Amino acid sequence: MINLEEQISLFKIIGSQLKSRVECIAIGGSAMMFYGAKAATKDVDLVFLKKEDLDAAKNILYNSGFDERKNIKGIFREDEAAGKPVMMDGKDTRFDLFLNEVIGFKVHEKTIERLREVHEFGNFMVKTASPEDVLMMKGCTERERDRDDAAELIRKFNINWSVILDEVSKQAKIGIAAFPILLYDFLTELRDDFKVDIPKNITKQLLAIAEKRIEELKKKGELIKVTKYKK
Q1: 67 touches 47 (CB < 8 A)
Q2: Burial class (CB in 10 A: 0-12, 13-18, 19+), 197
Q3: What domains sit in the chain, N to C, each tagged with a CATH number?
Q4: CA 131 to CA 114: how far, in whole Å?
Q5: Phi–psi pair at 160, nearest 5 degrees
Q6: What average pLDDT score do residues 115-123 get?
Q7: What average pLDDT score do residues 37-64 get?
Q8: Sign of the C-alpha dihedral, residues 182, 188, 194, 200?
């Protein structure tokens, strides 16, 4: 586990060793610490839009004592390599480096438009994903701490549910087709087990989006195949 100060120290190390400017997006607990919504995180989750930027950060981490983990599984579409992160294990924490996609959630122009804060550490620029996007990405996993984080996000921020619904419809087409179902289950569990205030009309609309997408795929003779992601 590392706190915000320790995360910033690691970002400064990366920024000081980069030979050119590199940009990435902080998601998960990393973004939540910048928002003041979490005190510490186990994983530093970053999304890169260019492979050369990801490779540059990976090499610096390797030279700083991090080792790449090989035996990882993910949540995929037809392509078993889709959305799989580069995991760099350190003594006290781990960096999960993603390229354009987070466990089936595709980063696109609207995701970038919703970015919030910008933090610069030498040549390393870290932008924070919106609370809505952090919430949706956590909806792809089945880790207990992600549910705790999601509950805190909803309690702390005025979540724009219209953004959620619009993005779910898009992700069902450009990412994983089962995304609306995954998020429906996730939010229903948060409401029932964590007593989080989630509008019932939102889960109802999520279910409608899922059913519509399933019917579209049935007509095309396509199937939905999903494996939950675990770290």
Answers
A1: no
A2: exposed
A3: 2-220 (3.30.460)
A4: 9
A5: -85, 100
A6: 98
A7: 97
A8: positive
pLDDT at 123: 98
Distance CA 2, CA 69 (A): 19
The Cα–Cα gap between 214 and 123 comes to 44
Is the model's pLDDT at 78 over the cut of 50? Answer: no
Q: Which letter, b or e, does each residue of 130-142 get, where b requires 16 or more Cβ atoms within 10 Å of its Cβ?
A: bbbbbbbbbbbbe
Is 111 in contact with 129 (CB distance < 8 Å)? yes
Q: Which two tokens stand for residue 74?
A: 């993910």
Tokens of 167: 């993005």
User: For residues 61 and 104, which has the higher predicted lDDT (pLDDT)?
Assistant: 61
For the chain, what is the HEC assignment? CEEHHHHHHHHHHHHHHCCCCEEEEECHHHHHHHHCCCCEECEEEEEECCHHHHHHHHHHHHHCCCEEECCCCCCCCCCCCCCCCEEEECCCCEEEEEECEECCEECCHHHHHCCCCEEEECCEEEEECCHHHHHHHHCCECCHHHHHHHHHHHHHCCCCHHHHHHHHHHHHHHCCCCHHHHHHHHHHHHHHHCCCCCCHHHHHHHHHHHHHHHHHHHHHCCCCCCCCECC
Mean pLDDT (whole number) for 161-188? 92
Rounded to whole angstroms, how far apart are CA atoms 7 and 10?
5
Question: What whole-number distance in Å separates Cα of residue 23 and Cα of residue 53?
Answer: 7
What pTM did the predictor assign?
0.91
pLDDT category, 82, cuts 50, 70, 90? Answer: low
Rounded Cα gap, residues 7 and 213, in angstroms: 40
